[in-house]
Amino acid sequence: MGAQIRVYRQKIASTSSMKKIFKAMELIATSRIGKARDRVAASMPYANAITRAVSAVSSQQDIDHVLTAESDNPRRSAVLIMASDRGMAGAYSANVLRHAEELLEKLRSEGKEVDTYLVGRKAQGYFDFRHREYKKVWTGNTDAPQFETAKEIGEALVSAFLQNTDEGGVDEIHVVYTEFHSLVKQSPTVVRLLPLEVVEEEITEDTELLPLYEYEPAPEDVLDALLPKYIESRIFSAMLQAAASELANRQRAMKSAGDNASDLIKEYTLLMNNARQAEITQELTELIAGADALNAS
Amino acid sequence: MAELEVEIVAEDRFVWSGPAQSVSARTIDGEIGILPGHTPLLAVLGDGDVVVTTADGQTVTARAEGGFFSVNHDRVEIVAGSATLDGEARGDSAA
């Protein structure tokens, strides 16, 4: 009987130490998410400015630029997948990977070869475990992305895009990341980064007509300079949103894990008390039975 | 007198905004000065300082690297890879 109580006591002890970890992870995520959201907001002016400029240039000028030209017969695609470095975030990485998997399936069914680029150790682990190939991987800091990383990714993708398809280049680039809508809503999203779809969503009723800019230097050169930056900015903003989503997911997952741990502790405490009561009752019965037996003799 | 509305943004943050008398910057082709009433322009920045003379006569200098700026209806948007401010106006910059 005593053994049973000891088992329950051990379970309670281990569950409460886990609960402490969950609680700590939740607090960390909560404290970081504010910063992550601020960073998403802080990157908006730049993203908006560059989007405005790119759409102004590409809508006005009939420029044949490599980055806007759509290939007639796309044969190779690149897919950039943004997952997290760590677990403890519920289904966050799994959701992204599932969406990526669907996209890969779709691209393959269209007869395209796919190069994958990964962000985050979870994505890397997923691919390594299945012995799948990937072109390149960036890990570390998925919950606090650096602009330098976005720049590196941008350069890698743009140079793959500019390369001839026959020499291992790609015709289109997709990104799979988790869009951050609010603390309670994040959704995995697939966007095509290149070639540019020159329709920007930011059209409101009072949108002014885009001005007829003069360019310095020539429009082609301006576009040359702008587009890689535009790509970097898109990737960076995707990374920031993914980071905010990761933290929001982690916070939620750790909250429910902590709640579950509390429930378990309650349950085990009840069972332990039951066992103790049973033990005491049994001891008493044994004593009384013993005394009765002595009296009777 | 008409004024320029100037906004400086960097990749990861908002740097400065405010009314100004003039802006001078270095594009990859050479120096350029912007006064109110300038024709719409989109130019690529070279390495160098962007000097903004604010409405009250102070100057704001931003080291803007690798970016561009656009002028449209007296709105100047300076978009830089990285921008750091120096000069007296540092205290006014939005945190």
TrEMBL record, chain A:
| Protein's UniProt name | ATP synthase gamma chain
Instruction: Provide the GO biological process annotations.
Output: proton motive force-driven plasma membrane ATP synthesis
Q: How does it sit in the membrane?
A: Peripheral membrane protein
One GO MF term on file is: ATP binding
Q: Which Pfam families match?
A: ATP-synt (PF00231)
Q: Which PANTHER family match?
A: ATP SYNTHASE GAMMA CHAIN (PTHR11693), ATP SYNTHASE SUBUNIT GAMMA, MITOCHONDRIAL (PTHR11693:SF22)
Q: What broad taxonomic lineage does this protein's source fall under?
A: Bacteria, Bacillati, Actinomycetota, Actinomycetes, Micrococcales
Q: Which HAMAP family match?
A: ATP_synth_gamma_bact
Q: What does this protein do?
A: Produces ATP from ADP in the presence of a proton gradient across the membrane. The gamma chain is believed to be important in regulating ATPase activity and the flow of protons through the CF(0) complex.
**NCBIfam families annotated for this entry?**
ATPsyn_F1gamma, PRK05621.1-2
UniProt entry tagged with the keyword Cell membrane:
yes
* Subunit description: F-type ATPases have 2 components, CF(1) - the catalytic core - and CF(0) - the membrane proton channel. CF(1) has five subunits: alpha(3), beta(3), gamma(1), delta(1), epsilon(1). CF(0) has three main subunits: a, b and c.
Keyword entries, A-Z: ATP synthesis, Cell membrane, CF(1), Hydrogen ion transport, Ion transport, Membrane, Transport
SUPFAM superfamilies per the UniProt record, alphabetical: ATP synthase (F1-ATPase), gamma subunit
Q: Which family does it belong to?
A: Belongs to the ATPase gamma chain family.
**Would you tell me the Gene Ontology cellular component terms?**
plasma membrane; proton-transporting ATP synthase complex
| Subcellular location(s) of the protein | Cell membrane; Membrane
From TrEMBL, chain B:
The record's principal subcellular location, in a coarse class, is membrane
- The identity of this protein, by name, is ATP synthase epsilon chain
Check the record and name the Pfam families matching this protein. Answer: ATP-synt_DE_N (PF02823)
The entry sums up its family as follows: Belongs to the ATPase epsilon chain family.
PANTHER family from the entry? ATP SYNTHASE DELTA/EPSILON CHAIN (PTHR13822), ATP SYNTHASE EPSILON CHAIN, CHLOROPLASTIC (PTHR13822:SF10)
| Stored HAMAP family | ATP_synth_epsil_bac (MF_00530)
Molecular-function GO terms, alphabetical: ATP binding; proton-transporting ATP synthase activity, rotational mechanism
Keyword Ion transport set for record? yes
Q: How does it sit in the membrane?
A: Peripheral membrane protein
Cellular compartments annotated:
Cell membrane
Q: How does it assemble?
A: F-type ATPases have 2 components, CF(1) - the catalytic core - and CF(0) - the membrane proton channel. CF(1) has five subunits: alpha(3), beta(3), gamma(1), delta(1), epsilon(1). CF(0) has three main subunits: a, b and c.
GO cellular component terms, semicolon-separated: plasma membrane; proton-transporting ATP synthase complex
Concerning InterPro entries, the annotation shows: ATP_synth_F1_dsu/esu, ATP_synth_F1_dsu/esu_N, ATPsynth_dsu/esu_N
Which species is this record about? Answer: Micrococcus terreus
Is Lipid metabolism there in the keyword field? no
Q: Which UniProt keywords apply?
A: ATP synthesis, Cell membrane, CF(1), Hydrogen ion transport, Ion transport, Membrane, Transport
Q: Which gene encodes it?
A: atpC
- Ranges for domain ATP synthase F1 complex delta/epsilon subunit N-terminal come to 4-83
Function summary? Produces ATP from ADP in the presence of a proton gradient across the membrane.
